[in-house]
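Appendix B, Record 12. Input sequence as logged:
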Amino acid sequence: MTEREVLQSDDVERVLKRISHEILEANAGGEEVILLGIPTRGVPLARRLGELIARIEHREGSVDEFVGEIDITPYRDDLRSRPLTESHPTRIPLSGIDGKTVVLVDDVLFSGRTVRAALDALNDLGRPRVVQLAVLVDRGHRELPIRADFVGRNLPSARSERISVELREIDGADRVVITDGGRA
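Logged structural output:
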Protein backbone atom coordinates (compact mmCIF):
# COMPACT_ATOMS: atom_id res chain seq x y z
CA MET A 1 0.00 0.00 0.00
CA THR A 2 1.23 3.44 -0.93
CA GLU A 3 0.54 6.39 1.33
CA ARG A 4 0.46 9.94 -0.01
CA GLU A 5 0.06 12.97 2.27
CA VAL A 6 -2.13 15.51 0.47
CA LEU A 7 -2.67 18.04 3.26
CA GLN A 8 -0.25 18.89 6.04
CA SER A 9 -0.91 20.77 9.27
CA ASP A 10 -0.45 24.23 7.69
CA ASP A 11 -2.76 23.28 4.81
CA VAL A 12 -5.50 22.12 7.21
CA GLU A 13 -5.22 25.38 9.16
CA ARG A 14 -5.35 27.45 5.97
CA VAL A 15 -8.46 25.72 4.58
CA LEU A 16 -10.26 26.00 7.92
CA LYS A 17 -9.56 29.75 7.96
CA ARG A 18 -10.92 30.03 4.42
CA ILE A 19 -14.03 27.99 5.24
CA SER A 20 -14.73 30.14 8.33
CA HIS A 21 -14.56 33.30 6.20
CA GLU A 22 -16.78 31.69 3.54
CA ILE A 23 -19.39 30.76 6.17
CA LEU A 24 -19.45 34.34 7.44
CA GLU A 25 -19.67 35.80 3.93
CA ALA A 26 -22.44 33.44 2.83
CA ASN A 27 -24.51 34.22 5.92
CA ALA A 28 -23.85 37.97 6.32
CA GLY A 29 -22.02 37.26 9.57
CA GLY A 30 -22.30 34.54 12.15
CA GLU A 31 -25.01 35.88 14.44
CA GLU A 32 -27.62 33.27 13.43
CA VAL A 33 -25.19 30.45 12.59
CA ILE A 34 -25.01 27.20 14.57
CA LEU A 35 -22.16 24.75 13.78
CA LEU A 36 -22.89 21.07 14.43
CA GLY A 37 -20.05 18.59 14.11
CA ILE A 38 -20.74 15.06 12.91
CA PRO A 39 -18.73 12.58 15.04
CA THR A 40 -16.01 11.67 15.07
CA ARG A 41 -13.72 14.16 13.33
CA GLY A 42 -16.44 16.64 12.39
CA VAL A 43 -16.75 17.59 16.06
CA PRO A 44 -13.22 19.05 16.51
CA LEU A 45 -13.47 20.61 13.04
CA ALA A 46 -16.71 22.39 14.04
CA ARG A 47 -15.08 23.58 17.24
CA ARG A 48 -12.06 24.94 15.35
CA LEU A 49 -14.31 26.70 12.85
CA GLY A 50 -16.26 28.15 15.78
CA GLU A 51 -13.07 29.45 17.38
CA LEU A 52 -11.99 31.04 14.09
CA ILE A 53 -15.42 32.64 13.58
CA ALA A 54 -15.39 33.95 17.17
CA ARG A 55 -11.94 35.47 16.59
CA ILE A 56 -12.93 37.04 13.26
CA GLU A 57 -16.12 38.53 14.73
CA HIS A 58 -14.50 39.49 18.05
CA ARG A 59 -17.11 37.49 19.97
CA GLU A 60 -17.03 37.28 23.73
CA GLY A 61 -18.04 34.12 25.56
CA SER A 62 -17.70 30.45 24.81
CA VAL A 63 -17.98 28.86 21.38
CA ASP A 64 -20.36 26.40 23.04
CA GLU A 65 -23.00 29.10 22.52
CA PHE A 66 -23.04 28.29 18.78
CA VAL A 67 -21.07 25.04 18.35
CA GLY A 68 -22.41 21.56 19.13
CA GLU A 69 -22.50 18.01 17.84
CA ILE A 70 -25.15 15.74 16.41
CA ASP A 71 -25.37 11.98 16.92
CA ILE A 72 -26.30 10.23 13.68
CA THR A 73 -25.91 6.67 14.94
CA PRO A 74 -29.63 5.77 15.11
CA TYR A 75 -30.19 7.28 11.66
CA ARG A 76 -27.52 5.34 9.75
CA ASP A 77 -28.77 3.16 6.92
CA ASP A 78 -26.09 0.50 7.42
CA LEU A 79 -27.05 -0.68 10.90
CA ARG A 80 -28.17 -4.05 9.52
CA SER A 81 -24.79 -4.75 7.93
CA ARG A 82 -22.61 -3.05 10.56
CA PRO A 83 -23.08 -3.54 14.27
CA LEU A 84 -23.80 -0.44 16.32
CA THR A 85 -20.42 0.72 17.53
CA GLU A 86 -20.80 3.64 19.86
CA SER A 87 -23.27 6.42 20.22
CA HIS A 88 -22.16 10.02 20.64
CA PRO A 89 -24.15 12.56 22.60
CA THR A 90 -26.09 15.18 20.70
CA ARG A 91 -25.21 18.57 22.12
CA ILE A 92 -27.16 21.52 20.74
CA PRO A 93 -26.42 25.12 21.83
CA LEU A 94 -28.97 26.51 24.29
CA SER A 95 -30.39 28.88 21.68
CA GLY A 96 -31.59 25.81 19.75
CA ILE A 97 -31.72 25.41 15.99
CA ASP A 98 -35.21 26.69 15.15
CA GLY A 99 -34.97 29.53 12.65
CA LYS A 100 -31.15 29.40 12.61
CA THR A 101 -28.66 28.63 9.90
CA VAL A 102 -27.21 25.23 10.81
CA VAL A 103 -23.87 24.31 9.29
CA LEU A 104 -23.21 20.57 9.51
CA VAL A 105 -19.45 19.92 9.68
CA ASP A 106 -17.72 16.68 8.68
CA ASP A 107 -14.25 15.59 7.68
CA VAL A 108 -14.85 13.73 4.39
CA LEU A 109 -17.82 13.84 2.02
CA PHE A 110 -18.01 10.56 0.12
CA SER A 111 -21.29 8.80 -0.67
CA GLY A 112 -23.50 11.35 1.11
CA ARG A 113 -25.06 8.76 3.41
CA THR A 114 -23.56 10.21 6.60
CA VAL A 115 -24.94 13.64 5.70
CA ARG A 116 -28.36 12.11 4.96
CA ALA A 117 -28.33 10.56 8.44
CA ALA A 118 -27.37 13.94 9.94
CA LEU A 119 -30.26 15.62 8.10
CA ASP A 120 -32.67 13.00 9.49
CA ALA A 121 -31.31 13.55 13.01
CA LEU A 122 -31.56 17.32 12.58
CA ASN A 123 -35.20 16.98 11.53
CA ASP A 124 -35.97 15.43 14.93
CA LEU A 125 -34.32 18.35 16.77
CA GLY A 126 -36.15 21.28 15.27
CA ARG A 127 -36.60 23.37 12.18
CA PRO A 128 -33.59 25.38 11.05
CA ARG A 129 -34.09 28.21 8.58
CA VAL A 130 -31.28 26.86 6.38
CA VAL A 131 -28.97 23.85 6.53
CA GLN A 132 -25.50 24.08 5.00
CA LEU A 133 -22.63 21.62 4.82
CA ALA A 134 -18.92 22.23 5.42
CA VAL A 135 -16.36 19.49 4.81
CA LEU A 136 -12.60 19.37 4.96
CA VAL A 137 -12.39 16.98 1.98
CA ASP A 138 -14.81 16.16 -0.84
CA ARG A 139 -13.66 12.97 -2.52
CA GLY A 140 -16.57 12.46 -4.93
CA HIS A 141 -18.44 9.18 -5.55
CA ARG A 142 -21.81 10.45 -4.36
CA GLU A 143 -24.65 7.95 -4.00
CA LEU A 144 -27.15 10.60 -2.93
CA PRO A 145 -27.82 14.08 -4.36
CA ILE A 146 -25.84 15.92 -1.67
CA ARG A 147 -23.17 18.56 -2.12
CA ALA A 148 -21.14 20.64 0.29
CA ASP A 149 -21.55 24.41 0.49
CA PHE A 150 -18.04 24.85 1.89
CA VAL A 151 -15.16 22.55 0.86
CA GLY A 152 -11.60 22.66 2.11
CA ARG A 153 -10.19 20.55 -0.69
CA ASN A 154 -11.67 18.55 -3.57
CA LEU A 155 -9.73 15.29 -3.84
CA PRO A 156 -11.07 13.17 -6.68
CA SER A 157 -10.19 9.61 -5.80
CA ALA A 158 -10.63 6.04 -6.88
CA ARG A 159 -13.07 3.93 -4.88
CA SER A 160 -10.16 1.64 -4.02
CA GLU A 161 -8.33 4.51 -2.32
CA ARG A 162 -8.84 5.39 1.31
CA ILE A 163 -8.75 9.00 2.48
CA SER A 164 -7.80 9.40 6.13
CA VAL A 165 -8.15 12.65 8.03
CA GLU A 166 -6.01 12.94 11.13
CA LEU A 167 -6.63 15.74 13.61
CA ARG A 168 -4.46 16.81 16.54
CA GLU A 169 -7.36 16.50 19.00
CA ILE A 170 -7.78 12.79 18.20
CA ASP A 171 -4.64 11.64 16.39
CA GLY A 172 -1.98 14.04 17.70
CA ALA A 173 -1.36 15.78 14.36
CA ASP A 174 -3.23 17.36 11.45
CA ARG A 175 -2.95 15.78 8.03
CA VAL A 176 -4.89 14.15 5.21
CA VAL A 177 -3.54 10.98 3.63
CA ILE A 178 -4.60 8.97 0.58
CA THR A 179 -3.76 5.29 0.76
CA ASP A 180 -3.79 3.28 -2.48
CA GLY A 181 -5.14 -0.24 -2.45
CA GLY A 182 -7.15 0.14 0.74
CA ARG A 183 -10.86 -0.40 0.79
CA ALA A 184 -13.14 2.53 0.04
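The CA atoms of residues 71 and 88 lie 5 Å apart.
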